[in-house]
Amino acid sequence: LAMALATFFIALLYGLAAITGSVDGTTGELWANVVGVVLRTGLAAGLFCAFGLGITLLLNNSVGAIVGFLIYWFVIENGLVAVFLPRVAAWLPVTNAASFGNGSPVQRLSGSVFSDQGPDVVDDHNYLVAGLVLLLWTAAALAASGALFRRRDIA
Known about the structure:
Elements: H1 2-20, H2 28-59, H3 62-84, H4 86-89, H5 93-102, E1 106-110, E2 120-125, H6 127-152
Antiparallel strand pairs: 1-2
Helix pairs in contact: 2-3, 2-5, 2-6, 5-6
């Protein structure tokens, strides 16, 4: 899917270049960025699929895992933890997957959301560390699910 989207946007870029009569900006740096984003996004998607598999095997119920993940993502990680524990939120899986995929640093709130000035947004760690954090979350989920699966196995 990522390759199809990248191909679509590249074709769109050349279509617009043909209309305007210029290909300025389509340098080697552009292509390196496109390839980097496609590779990082594909790797992040694969790691997050493996993470989801581990969570599903832990719960032994795919519907429960999907609903639980949506509640976790919208309410816990992006709501409660991001506001009340911003230093912890910078190390959670969804935040790091997004950061690794788009190649930007993980950002968190600094200061109180309840102060008159409001919080500042600061960079916590770069996208390579975010990829490593996502890999560790995935490994932990798969290891825990593998251990639990062996305990449940009756054969």
